[in-house]
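<backbone_tokenisation>
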Amino acid sequence: MDKNDLPKTPSRLSDLPAAYRLAGKAIPYFWALTVASGAAGLYAAFFLALPDARQGETFRIIFLHVPASWMSLFIYLCMAFLAALALFFHARASSILLSALAPTGALFTFLSLSTGALWAKPIWGTWWVWWDARLVSELVLFFMYVGFIALASAIEDPRRADKASALLALVGVVNIPIVYFSVRWWHTLHQGYSITLTRPPAMAPVTFWGIVLCVLACTAYAAAVALMRFRNTVLDRERDAEWVRETLATGS
């Protein structure tokens, strides 16, 4: 008898009902945080921050480009962590949340690349520079997200798909330090770090706090959307389970 045909023990399923209900409770708070911090960040971006002395109004792209770039890296790091939990501890909730994060990570990476191109045209005089390490490594990250989604969708068996995609997520994490440190390691058109933990930010306080609020909004949005996708996937995979029928019957 194949091991996948063996009865599922309660210990292997116990994480899903609790995670499903916890996600349901957290989602409204994340949406509220998204709206509140997003509104405050956009207000700072368009009404409080003054035009840049060199870039003029074009610099306002920073309020979307920087949060999107940050989220593209942060989400993949979260995916790698969840992949490790899924592979080494057989945490099914981690496997599902891992897949739920990938489309949002791909979205933010696309936004990072597209807003970066819009910013580069008036500043650098070109949309794209192939020899720029930051741009190319960020593009590789986008392909990693797309490859993860394609691999997970191509395998019909959910357990095999979870394992294969988790392995891919762990392999791809090697690109994250390359993206982050590329402006130090290689000659590049891309500017260096504007915000670090070792020195004050190289920007006006209103710009700094506006970016922080936009990052918070993007983080809360990513959490809300991923948890919604997580709950839908759990219901689909466990639709024959008794706890799912009871949950749907009670509407909880």
About this structure: The chain has a mean pLDDT of 87. The chain has one domain: 16-250.
